[in-house]
Amino acid sequence: MKSMKKLLIVTALGLASCASLAAPHQENTVRIAAPFEIKGADPALSGDILLRMDVVETLVEVDAHAEPIPALAASWQVSDDGLRWQFVLRDNVRFHDGSPLNAQAVVKSLNTARSKAGLLDKTPISDISGEGQVVTIRLREPFTPLLSVLAESRSQILALSSWDQQGNITQIIGSGPFMLTGFQPPQSLAVKRFEDYWGKKPQIAAASYLSSGRAETRALLADSGDADYVFNLDAASRQRLARKPTLQIPAIPVPRTLMLKLNLGDPLLAELPVREAISMAIDRNAMAMAVLRYPGAATQLFPQNMGEWHNAALQPLQYQPERAAQHLKQAGWQAGSDGVLTRNGQRLSVTLLTFPDRPELPLMAMVIQQQLRKVGIEVKINSTNASEIPAQHHSGQLQMALFSRNFALTPDPTGTLLQDYAENGGDWGAMNWHPAGFSAALHTLTQSTDSAARAQARVLITTALQQELPVIPIAWYQQSAAINSQLKDVALDPFERHFGLRNMHWEP
């Protein structure tokens, strides 16, 4: 891989179209289809796909309980004041270009990551340095989620030859059990087994990935046998494909919540009674069973599988349409001639943004539109590109958005909360919401090691979110896939970090 031109060549395993994905696969290639677009070579944009495909690795991995475990870092230690972390790198690790893993490559990768928007740039790092096989990270203040941030996909470690002299990434050279053989953003990539991998050698010889945003297309690929591993199925396709003996349809709960994001700076949504009415007008149980086809109604933001973040003491969110109507009436809203509520000549009408990459979202949006109409709230749906939600967040134009948020972007959800609920809000979190004590509670979670103080901070955070509803939880997720029955030892990752290529194998 001498240049990006060579990197962008679609090889025999490349996937420029569904037709190439459907071609007879060589060397028992595992053909994967999922909705995630490849946004470019920059880890800040496509690090999640490269991590899922086991091309790149991070210093830290996580076990089944979301606890940090060694990866490229064999061990680490932290000073008593929490300001200096030292990581000892594994010996005998080589990148895909044959160069050795060393402190220089790690420092370059992490400093590049922290120069861009993400989690590392929100971490109070004063300096990253290293020599030989030891990397030192110095902090301005203690930051307990550091290991989680270093496990996040944007903290991936690349070989020094990945950059040109101007600091631009021209090649993606990782250290994972698979190396790139084809790369064509935004649609496809291909990998083959890296024979000099430092860890357990995978049995799979090669794999390919196709980004397919339409759920119907992904389901057809699974149904026809033109893909071996189809990720993220809509409910109807899941039930239909489950009847095929050539497919296995695993599903697991994941720490992901489907929610409404509200702009509390919008005059229509600034008042708590209106937000409460929106929440009470939504029949979560009926929606989950009709659209998702499993009992996933969200009674609070964090699902039960998130352990200490699920606050069992909270009053659960419930379907109470009569009470919703009463809230709106008491706030001065009266039905107009067409049934839409008005006050002082203004209609209670909002635009809801969503996107079709997750097939359930447009359906959920239509149901929400119908249910809110029953209490006099008019909802206009704009099903567009997912990028419109952060774009309108920053422009201030957004009123409501419907999407799902993965709280396991880092093993400790504190990292995600720092992105979404900091003082200035976040693309996929709060907008114009500044509750008393919330930032201090987040600060406690990033600095304190005292279990009682951390528990109290989580209670404050979860209670504020439940009571003030800057986002309105709708449903908790299960993740599903359609997998070729001849493909064995395939396990869905509850943290959605890996497709599991390194562990799967073909039936003999």
UniProtKB/TrEMBL annotation:
| SUPFAM superfamilies, sorted | Periplasmic binding protein-like II
Going by the UniProt record, its keywords in alphabetical order are:
Signal
| Gene Ontology biological process terms, A to Z | peptide transport
Q: Does the keyword Signal apply?
A: yes
Entry's PROSITE patterns? PROKAR_LIPOPROTEIN
Q: Which Gene3D superfamilies match?
A: Dipeptide-binding Protein, Domain 3, Periplasmic binding protein-like II
GO molecular function term, any single one = peptide transmembrane transporter activity
The organism's place on the tree of life at top rank? Bacteria
Every copy of the Solute-binding protein family domain together lies at 67-423
Give a GO cellular-component term: ATP-binding cassette (ABC) transporter complex
Question: Signal peptide: which range, if any?
Answer: 1-22
Record-linked PANTHER family: ABC TRANSPORTER SUBSTRATE-BINDING PROTEIN (PTHR30290:SF83), PERIPLASMIC BINDING COMPONENT OF ABC TRANSPORTER (PTHR30290)
The protein's name in its UniProt record: ABC transporter substrate-binding protein
